[in-house]
Amino acid sequence: MFSLIAAVGKNHELGQKGQLIFHLQNDMNFFRQTTNGHKVVMGRKTWESLPSKLKNRKNIVISHQNFSGPDQIIHDVDDFIKKNQATDEEIFIIGGGAIYSVFLPHAKNLYLTKINASAPTADTFFPNFDKTKYRKTLITKGTENGLEYSIVKYTKD
Q: Which domains does the chain have, with CATH numbers?
C-alpha cells in the first residue's frame, strides 16, 4: 500500500527552490519514526535535496536518469505502482509535488503535518484531494517556532 507523507502550509505549500519551506523538529521526528524501516519513494529533485541517504529505509528514486546513491532507481512508475499497490507493506511517498500527484490516486493513507501558515513564495505544492473520501484522525498538534501545526492521518476507506 502507498502512503503519502508531507508537511504542508495553509495553501498546500511544500517547498521553494528545491527546499522545504517549513522546518519543524516535531515534524521531522514524526517523519523519521513513521518511515523508519520502510521503503521511501521520491523524485530525483527530492533525492538531491537530502543531505544524505535516509538511514534505515530503502531509498527509491523515480528518474529517467541513472546515477549512484539510492538503493533503487525506478524508470517506469506505472509498472512500479502495478507491482506494489496490492502489497500489505506500507511504502511511503515523500515528494516532490509531481510525485505526490502521480501516487495520490493509489494512496491508502496521507500523513500530513498541517502548518497554520502560508508561504507566498512557494513553488511546489501538495495536490488537492477530496477529503470526503478519507477518514481523518488527529495524531497530535502543537506549536513550534511560533507555528501552530497538527499532524493528521487521512485513511481512504
A: 2-156 (3.40.430.10)
